[in-house]
Amino acid sequence: MDFGFVVLESILAMAIITINLLVCVTIYLHKELRCITNYLIVSLAVADFGVGALAIPFSMVLSMEYTLYFYTCLFLTCFPLVTTQFSILLLLVIAIHTHLKIKLPNRQVMFLDRNPEYTNECLSLGSYPLRVKKRWVMFIVAFCWLLSLLIGLSPMMGWNRFQQYGETRNKSKVINFQRAVFVFVIRDKPPRDLLSQAYQDPEILSYSHGPVEHLGRCSFTSIFSPEFLVYFIFLICTLLPLAAMLGIYGDIFRVVHDHFRSQTLWPTKRKEMQMACTLLLLVGVFFICWMPLHMIYCIQLLCPSCEQYESLEHLAVLLSHLNSLANPLVYALRKKNLGLALRSVFLYRVLHWPSMKTCCGPSPKIHPQPEVIKHRS
């Protein structure tokens, strides 16, 4: 299962890197797509890109359960927490932004201002002629990154299983199979850079540059306690934001339903409603992809003596990483303008299809006419 897991993770990582990079490049090349919602989508794509470029390779190392020094293993396990938490917080920010656009169409919010230069999708604002300033969006995204770093790196501040880590050394594959692996050595006083040494025999570990008690079997469960993964990561940092998002989208649908009943739902609000459905779908995909892995951690906490299936845990990890591939596919399929632009960039810029130069040029779908903007403003 280790080999199959590594192969599947490698394929998934390449797909995630490619499609999320394509999303970022597409919105950069198409100025008409540069609106607040798409800025947030780009930030989400950057986080998903980090999953493919770093989190998945780290996960493959963890699946091998190599003998590593504690602080090296701690870094490998903390990084996926950072990217996951940022995705959750950003989905919450997008939900709040959509809620403001629908529920507060004509009210002045302290960080909002007019911008008549934005186009159809960004100015689906007929009843919402206000736009969040770009610098505020950058500030909010930076704050989400900072909060994600504090949450994801909290184990480095002492919330870890350092005392029990050395006990897993005898269970390591290095000890059992006596095969050579690379062990990254971090001393109590770390040197300028990480040292890499190969050990052919477990007895040589006693003569390494680092203390032997800092060596152990590197995995999520050897670094994090089940209580940390369930009570803090799942219940507080994952379930609470998801519950808040469901409440926000529930209120959005209530407002739209009231407009339907009073027959005052403008075409622009119908467009915002479609966007809300797309974002709610993103939340649902996130829930489906991550829930199995969190359920496994809950079972490990509530039933420590229950038999654990490594293959089942690997499948849950694969499903959680699949979320980073599903995100861009969802909003590419649901948002016609973005989907058309993605297809244009992929075929014309990447594959260099000459015919795309004429078939996917400026069109009313991507480049709205000035009179439309004038009418809506």
TrEMBL record:
Q: Domain G-protein coupled receptors family 1 profile spans what residues?
A: 19-331
Q: What is its main location?
A: membrane
Q: Name one GO cellular component term.
A: plasma membrane
The reply on keyword Transmembrane is yes
**What is this entry's stated membrane topology?**
Multi-pass membrane protein
Q: Which residues cross the membrane?
A: 6-29, 36-56, 68-96, 136-157, 229-252, 273-297
The terms under GO molecular function for this entry are: G protein-coupled receptor activity
Q: Which domain of life is it from?
A: Eukaryota
Location relative to the cell: Cell membrane
Q: What is this protein called?
A: Adenosine receptor A1-like
